[in-house]
Each structure stands twice: as structure tokens, then as C-alpha cells.
Amino acid sequence: MRIGELAAQAGVTRDTIRFYEKVGLVAGRRLANGYRDFPPEAVAWLHYVRTAQMLGFSLAEIARHGEELSEAPDAAEALSALFEEKIKVIDVRMAELVILRAELATRVGTGCPLRAVGQPG
Hints:
Layout: H1 3-10, H2 14-22, E1 29-30, E2 36-37, H3 42-54, H4 59-71, H5 75-107
Antiparallel strand pairs: 1-2
Helix pairs in contact: 1-3, 4-5
């Protein structure tokens, strides 16, 4: 299918598809007339990419795990493992943000919030 049809079916823009193609997330072949031609399964793949992004996965993570998932004997199990890994990353980041928030809170009203706490002014 051509890029316009793929964009309409996948709910993304042509520019998004061109970008994904540039970074290797989706592949189309060039026809003799120069048009891109994408396989029908590209629609489901683009839906997956958009959903994975919404769930906090970067394009690099999606690309890295895409082939693994397509070759996994049990895609649901492989996805669950990826989700568990992502939850761990989020938990670490949340803990870091709690510490950062506390640090910022100690600086409120100090007159110079960029100076190290306890450092003479």
C-alpha cells in the first residue's frame, strides 16, 4: 500500500511514516514510479509503535525490541517481560524524582536556590 493509505489506516501522518522509515522502524520498498509501497502488516506495526510510545517506550526501545517480539514463541509473555522491565525503570526514576523534589523544597525561600545548601553566600 502507498504511504497515504498507510497513514490513514494507522492514524499517523505521512511525515511520521517517513521519519519511522528513516530511523528503521518501518520499511517500504520503492516502486518503479518512485512511490513507497508498504506491506499490509505495517498498519498493525504502526499501531504497536504508537501504543508503545504512549506507554513510555522510546523509539530506540521499540526498535530494539521489535525483532525480539516478532520472533518470540509467545509474544504475550515477551511483552509482559518488557512491561516488567519498564516498571522497574519507572520505579527507579520515581525514587530519583522524590529525592529531587525534596532537594528543591529545601531551596525554596533561601534567597539563592542555585547555591549549594549550607554553602556560605
